[in-house]
Amino acid sequence: MTKPFQLRITVRGYELDTQGHLNQAVYLQYCEHLRWESLRAAGISQDKLIATQIGPAVLENTMRFRHELRGGDEVDVTCQWIWGEGKTFRVEQEIRRTDGVLACELSSVAGLIDLTQRKLISNPAEHFAKLADHPEIMGL
């Protein structure tokens, strides 16, 4: 298993709910941002991926909130790609404060969809590996 891709994000005031906590939808946005950033770090831009007429499709998200985040908190968000057989793969993510406190976990099931046929393609890892300049970032 490869080391998860990671970036640091600072919680911004406009992302807070009326109780002063990070709005629950923003946790998902942080994770989505990390997935795209890990693809970009691997050498797969959105334009490069879409030019193949193949795009990502999230099929399921399971989010577990463990600890509140507040404005100004700095968090490390991770992204770990988990490959198996078939048309789907998993992405495991964590959001941790810099003091190590786990704030949120996200487990996603996703695939790559043929944008013309509107069907999941077989072996998404192979497709990503062909496009990547640094496939090791994605555990390929």
From TrEMBL:
Transmembrane segments: none annotated. This is Thioesterase. It comes from Streptomyces humidus. InterPro entries: 4-hydroxybenzoyl-CoA_TE (IPR050563), HotDog_dom_sf (IPR029069). GO terms for molecular function: fatty acyl-CoA hydrolase activity.
